[in-house]
Amino acid sequence: MIVIDYRDKRPLYEQVAEKIAHLIICGVLESNAKLPSVRSLAMDLSVNPNTIQRAYAQLEQDGYIYTVVGRGNYVTDSQEWKSGRLQEVSDELRAALRNARDAGLSREEALNLANEIYQEKKEGSAND
Amino acid sequence: MIVIDYRDKRPLYEQVAEKIAHLIICGVLESNAKLPSVRSLAMDLSVNPNTIQRAYAQLEQDGYIYTVVGRGNYVTDSQEWKSGRLQEVSDELRAALRNARDAGLSREEALNLANEIYQEKKEGSAND
DNA sequence: GCAAGTGTATTAAAAGTCTTAGTACACTTA
DNA sequence: TAAGTGTACTAAGACTTTTAATACACTTGC
User: Fold this and answer.
1) SS3 B66
2) Are residues A70 and A24 in the same domain?
């Protein structure tokens, strides 16, 4: 389900949270799907349960999952986070565009780049 | 010249390097301008000289400044780093566009955003 | 040559973060 | 009741960041 990259310098919990978030965003994990338990995923990845716990806590704070004590963690309904996600990527895009413009990228080049990306196939999760 | 933000969780040397890079990119520091010495900037910011040394080392590695032992650090001619910078921001823009597309932002919205940004005035350094 | 200012290198220690380890508690399900 | 779940806490080790102190080589100006 998840592979840890030990060359990645970021904390493990952040890496795990990001990969699970990616699975949710891409639709691999559907709404209300049950996530592995803290302990089982920790066993699976050979890390400490505390590390998974922290990753799940972050995912919950970001709105991607919800927790039922005694039962487990479940994927939040996509309506809950899609608008926030859209706001997030829009802000990211704004910042990137400003940087590109200030670095001397012309408007035409930026628009071409955008059209090029939108012509690409949307890859599910075969990027890694 | 530079103000440190102690709420920023990143290392000080990274923060200092980024702020100086920003000054160079925006043209506040012109080509071949002399930077403050390691010791004087350290005094100025109330940090250790080693911290500034590390920031300068990073700036040199990124091509923004060059060092003359015994004399000081100087801003590199902009030709030296502008193409690399352009490549950098283009890659950043590509990634942001893919994220936006995958999150459901329509092509029209993305293009509108781009046009909107390119209509903005280019701000020198009044963003912070 | 000499003194002052420069970048550079080294070692040590303090402080903080990340991760592991172990333990404990409350809850849910069967 | 037993097993599985999330949660909380403390302690220790590893690592990074930062400070501190010192030393050396170079350049400039006297």
Assistant:
1) strand
2) yes
Q: Lowest-pLDDT range, A55-69, A77-91, A110-124?
A: A110-124
Same domain, A94 and A65: no
CB proximity list for A19: less than 8 A, separation 6 or greater:
A2
Domain that holds residue A93: 79-119
Tell whether B90 is within 8 A of chain A (Cβ): yes
**Banded pLDDT at B125 (limits 50, 70, 90):** very low
Same domain as A65, residue A29: yes
Q: Quick one: what percent of chain B has pLDDT higher than 90?
A: 87
Contact criterion met (CB < 8 Å) for A113 and B90: yes
Residues 4-63 of B with CB under 8 A from A: 25-26
Q: Are B12 and B52 in contact (CB under 8 A)?
A: no
Q: Do A89 and B111 touch (CB under 8 A)?
A: no
Average pLDDT, stretch A2-9? 92
Number of domains in chain A: 2
Element (H, E) at B101: helix B79-102
Looking at the domain assignment, is residue B60 inside a domain? yes
